[in-house]
Amino acid sequence: MGVEEQKEEREVLDSIFPEEITDISDSAYRIAITLEVTNEHGDTTEPPTIVLSVSYPETYPDVAPNLDLSNPPNASKHPLLDVSEDKAQLLKSLDATIEENLGMAMVFTLVSTLKEAAEQLIIERQGALQARKDQEAAKAAEEENRKFHGTVVTRERFLEWREKFLAEMAEKERKEKEEQEMEDKKKRGGKPEEKKMTGRQLWEGGLVGKVDEDEDGEDAIEGLERLKVTA
Description:
The chain has helices at about 5-15, 85-90, 95-100, 105-150, 155-190, 200-205, 215-230; strands at about 20-25, 30-35, 50-55, 65-70. It is an alpha+beta fold.
């Protein structure tokens, strides 16, 4: 394709992208490509725009055009697309299209392919971001539910609880036993309880006839006299 044919493709592109195309030279130009992406709920970020720079080698389209990617001047950085970091990946996505269209005008096809690749990259990143948000939300919900439902009982947790419970009961029993032994020891170390003697033991011990000093003496004598008469 000669210079005239290259100019012809350029004129076709000018009719397709009247606002987006800018001349650099007779054989070079830039095309601004606005991506169509669906913002997440509440996201007011402007749709990103990338700029494809094209220059024709003398033997184009028998060889690939020279391509480059950049951001528009003073453009704000999109959270899910960074041309400086994603340039190599996006240009690589055009290799198959270039190979398939050698010998034919291909810039319009390249623009369409590049636009689709960039939009798909953003969609994949949106999906990954949403997946992380869903995972975090599910984890938060699980933690919240755990407050109301308590700990799920498994065999391992039951055995762990049982072992701890038996140990606590054994310790409690040991302490109670020690306290009882201390109590018994205190009782044995106290004053022994006085035993009352029977009448026979009092008689044999010569205690019969002894009376408390506070008792009336005459009553005591009368008691002894009655014992003699009876005898």
